[in-house]
Write a structure and sequence with these properties.
- By secondary structure, this protein is α/β, with parallel strands linked by helices.
- The protein has a single domain, classed as Rossmann fold (3-Layer(aba) Sandwich), CATH 3.40.50.
- It contains five helices and seven strands; from the N terminus they run E-H-E-H-E-E-H-E-E-E-H-H.
- The chain has a seven-stranded mixed beta sheet.
- Strand 4, helix 3 and strand 5 (103-107) form a beta-alpha-beta unit.
- The longest helix has 11 residues, at 10-20.
- The protein is globular and about 45 Å long.
Length: 166
């Protein structure tokens, strides 16, 4: 199942993340893709807020993994952009972060697709036409795997305000 959303501001992108947050469960995996500056970390800020995390959410580009543990479910926010080899990602031992009892969000996750579970939520963020505004984004959400198929109706409902015309 794929949803096409459109946001006009960074606040809207955060709101999409906050709307998705109540659907998240321990062991969920989200793969975020999109060019630099597309709003991946902005979306994670919304997710963290929606889960009740109080930590400041920042890009994990240089730290590789940031953890936000104060919310309903801990978040492991990973950025694999700077990693050169698949072995570098394996060495991160992502399945051991928070003993696996977290939501794993992987920026640039398409680069390590084969290392991630098939049951995941894939989110691609792209910049809209500059005439639509500097922060306008198109967000394609693809629910993959049985646990997301069972939550598909809820996902459609919570993202309704941002639905793009087909």
């Amino acid at each position: 199942m794929e949803l096409q959303l459109r946001t006009g501001t960074a606040d809207d992108t955060r709101a999409v993340g906050a709307a998705i947050a109540p659907l998240l469960r321990i062991h969920d995996v989200m793969v975020l893709t999109g060019e630099l500056g597309a709003g991946k970390t902005t979306l994670v800020r919304g997710i963290a807020s929606g889960l009740g995390a109080s930590e400041h959410v920042a890009s994990p580009t240089f730290t590789l993994i940031r953890e936000y543990v104060t919310g309903r479910i801990p978040i492991a926010h990973v950025d694999v952009f700077r990693l050169d080899r698949v072995q570098d990602v394996v060495d991160l031992a992502l399945d051991e972060v928070e003993d696996g009892a977290c939501v794993l969000i992987v920026e640039w996750g398409d680069a390590v697709d084969e290392l991630l579970p098939d049951d995941r939520l894939r989110v691609e963020l792209t910049s809209e036409d500059p005439a639509a505004g500097a922060d306008a984004r198109r967000i394609a959400i693809t629910a993959e795997g049985p646990s997301w198929v069972e939550r598909a109706d809820e996902l459609v409902a919570v993202t309704g305000p941002w639905r793009a015309d087909p």
